[in-house]
Fold each of these.
Amino acid sequence: MKDQFIAAKQRWAEKQKAAGFKPRDVAAPDRLPPGQRLTKGFPVLDLGIQPEIPHAEWSLTVDGEVENPVKLDWTAFNALPQVEDTSDFHCVTTWSKFDCRWSGVAFTTLYELARPKPDAAFVYFTSYDGYSTNVPLEKCLDDDVLVATRFDGEPVTREHGGPARVIIPKLYAWKGAKFVQGIHFLPGDKLGFWELRGYSNSADPWKEERYA
Ligand SMILES: Nc1nc2c(c(=O)[nH]1)N[C@H]1C(S)=C(S)[C@@H](COP(=O)(O)O)O[C@H]1N2
Ligand SMILES: [Mo]
């Protein structure tokens, strides 16, 4: 895990040097996962609750199997190094959105801050709307996984999961917690909201891992 973390951190650094928004070739035929349709809009999916969290009341807890559990308030979170990344977004309900420009804090930065213990192997995300989702730690240690506070240069709106939401582009979008409140490092896997209700646990859009 350590080597993977260092490699991801290095790739993040290289990507940040190449400043500016560079949409990739939209025409690339291999870019849309099987069974997906491209949308130009940005649909909203939630549990019917869009919690309103003022910045003064917002915090992100990073804990579990870590050497240094932290609870970051809005100021402390935004004082962490910021990254920007453009990625594609794939929802299990068959829409995909290309070139989403997110900025915020890289997952690797939170990993480095909390210092997971050697037995940490899974991540369980919790949200202000009662949502949860789970991801193997190795899937989070990639140079496109971040806790985003901005979309296209503007604060993430409440409907899209502001103040902060998780983005894991290589998995179906339900694996990215909107309104994120907690990031918990666990030794074993723990199923999240949709994973308990018939959605795939692995959620790879390229393998069409939609429902379990
Ligand atoms: N907290 C929370 N996060 C969530 C959800 C949710 O209901 N609550 N829905 C998930 C699903 S199913 C998808 S497709 C995306 C939708 O993000 P969007 O509303 O910005 O399109 O958020 C994911 N994260
Ligand atoms: Mo979804």
Note: The first strand starts at residue 37 and ends at 38.
Amino acid sequence: MKEIKKVVCIQCHSACRQAVEIEDGRLVGVGPDMDFPKGELFSTIVRSCPRAHAITDYFYHKDRLNYPLKRVGARGENKWVQISWQQAMDEIAGKMKVLIDRYGPETIGTTCGTGRTTDEFRTRFFNLLGSPNIVGQAEICYGEYLALMYAVFGWKLFPVVQKETKCTLMWGGGGPRYWNALWKNITKAHKEGMKLIVIDPRGIDATRHADLWLRVRPGTDCALALAMIRHIIKEGLYDKDFVEKWCHGFEELRERVEPFTLERAAEITWVPADKIRQAAELYATSKPAAMTHGLGIEHTVNSMETLHAVFALRAITGNLDVKGGDLFTTAYPDIIHEQEIELIDKLSPEQRKKQFGADRFKILTQEGFRMTQEAVPRVWGDLTLNRSSQFQAFAHAPTFYRAAITGKPYPLKAILTVASNPVVTYGNSKLVYEALKNLDLYVVVDFFMTPSAQLADYVLPGTTYLERPWIWAYAMIVGSERAMPAVVPGQYERWSDYKFWKGLGDRLGQEEYWPWEDLEEVYDYRLKPSGMTFKEFMARGGFAAGKGGYKRYEEKGFGTPTGKVELYSTVLEKMGYDPLPSFREPLESPVSSPDLAREYPLILTTGGRFLPYYNAEHRQIAQHRKRYPWPKMEIHPETAKSLGIEDGQWVWIESPRGRCRQTAEYDKNIHPGVVHAQHGWWFPEEPGEEPSLHGLWKSNINILTDDEPDHCNPINGGWPLRAFLCKVYPCKPEEVWEGETANVG
Ligand SMILES: Nc1nc2c(c(=O)[nH]1)N[C@H]1C(S)=C(S)[C@@H](COP(=O)(O)OP(=O)(O)OC[C@H]3O[C@@H](n4cnc5c(=O)[nH]c(N)nc54)[C@H](O)[C@@H]3O)O[C@H]1N2
Ligand SMILES: Nc1nc2c(c(=O)[nH]1)N[C@H]1C(S)=C(S)[C@@H](COP(=O)(O)OP(=O)(O)OC[C@H]3O[C@@H](n4cnc5c(=O)[nH]c(N)nc54)[C@H](O)[C@@H]3O)O[C@H]1N2
Ligand code: SF4
Ligand SMILES: [Mo]
């Protein structure tokens, strides 16, 4: 019997609406959900998406984890025995209890990833446990963006590009690989006359469409933004009414940007002065304008200051909360939000203080979270209804991993990794590896064996988006609730991440806080304010959005301490940081470290998104690997030739911290002094046991990245994944393993 079921695809952040085809209980295919009001928008995306095409290969893959595994033999030996969930959970909880008695609950930590699971239960579990040590990608992926938006605007903005939009500025990302739907809207509006400005060191899809492309030197965006602000002010192109009424600290900002003439910025950024002028004028005079979010800014050491500058740019041009510009998102009100599920108030003030790195990198910590949220309720109401997600309140990952190795400031003895692959995706893989090896207890919940999982004591099988029901608001970033049922439930012994957290909670004295047997019961509870059950919500399309609006600040101002947009941030000032944006050279660059640059003459930037892969996922899918077998490093042909590197040749990429191998790809658009390497590479087909760990040490660019706390962004502790120095040279024939590995899939 054939059935069609409606789901939200969560294989990437685009959250496309899909219609999944089920035959006799088996998933057979997927297409777009044309009944969804925005079905048309998603239809071409789903139809052309390689991950959607490969859905059955992914779902029924022979390497999926199906049963709980316990390590036998030494850590990293890839020797496992199958056990029951009951045994796994009893043993894990038992070991945690012993560690908690000896070292306190803060000795237990967790790593999370891209936010595509029910992370609110992770947070609930940790708040009830008494450990503030959740780490994730927050410092380098959207968390800091959110935190600073709260500090500067008192709420969160999202670019909603529509026919009214006159200009979109894509600053270091936000293209088709990121939010497909947004990109579709951008290309549509562009065809109708909207101007597109792209700021990126590489030629990417977006630059081909751009009216203006600024090929910036990696890591110098803040200087560019400050010069644009200066030019806009100088030429009187800013929104004087808005600035006068709604901006705090305009004069201080004006003073701060004064040294950043177009010429000086051109020298720093390698972008010609006239192009900076054009970008400033186009952005300031094409109103309304929207600006995308991107990692090109967030993965540099100057990330927070740069964000501050681009936020100021958005504000002084009067593009906030206007139709066609950057809008304040609001949540659907008739639901108990993820944030309420998190039970943030259960974590005691004493335990909060113990958060790793909180004394130094403040904005993303528990205390920083409180400070950035403090003035919000005056404008936006009850925080339990509207507050931001606790993924703005993470521990500092580099400090966390160091504590596992050194025991300082106190020992970290256990990590639960749910939905991430830290040894591949965090900065400084060698250090993460050492930390994981040193733990008393390491548990991984995933769909597949990964290099991180190979280092675990227990590896537990999780359920994908097709196997568990879900309501997702993406930490309320987008302001709507989207739901889906479990379409192919009950395969093998896979558990939802919810069940995992509840299982631990029940065993560790939290029973009263885990009254719901399964996720559907949770969602019935959460939907109570709406008067619907989960099934009823699904029957009505499974989608609910908050009430929008424009220029809502006119009524109550902004949710900041001054009630205005804080160009001069009183929140940053209170935390002891510079209240204004300031430019700093990348720590490693031809300018800041010329001696090092003699040995490592190229600037390396990493991680540009590409299909079909999603971060470190999907490398085991045969059809993907056939199309995209090996990692690529982009290099200018002239540079490559001068180094004796041919197009397609395997090369070593080396930084002062280590080296890895990728294949060179000639790219005449990239600056001759810059190379770009991919992230997320490991090889599932290679041996799982050490030293291979599925080829972890071959092509993983995070062997080269730095996470030394002294080199992190001082405000949020973000580690620089982009803009550092490297050298590149050809591999010897015996150093190339291509061809040994035919056995994917
Ligand atoms: N050098 C460099 N490094 C980077 C980046 C870069 O640009 N350059 N990008 C960074 C960014 S922005 C991010 S967000 C991170 C991503 O880092 P991670 O989140 O660690 O990314 P993945 O390795 O894809 O890890 C996801 C893992 O979780 C599993 N998984 C997926 N969904 C679920 C689920 O619902 N439940 C469970 N239990 N498991 C699940 C997948 O199978 C996969 O193994 O990488 C970062 N690392
Ligand atoms: N296919 C695919 N899609 C993905 C992901 C994936 O792994 N694969 N990952 C998802 C995740 S976790 C995230 S967070 C989003 C991120 O989505 P994006 O922010 O769009 O991420 P990237 O493509 O890594 O980086 C954006 C651009 O930054 C540029 N860049 C590098 N250094 C600099 C710099 O110093 N300054 C400037 N201005 N630009 C620079 C790169 O050339 C790149 O084109 O994508 C999501 N979507
Ligand atoms: S773009 Fe592809 S993988 Fe991403 S949500 Fe849409 S269908 Fe899924
Ligand atoms: Mo990310």
Note: The chain has four domains: 2-59, 69-143+349-468+497-545, 157-328, 594-735.
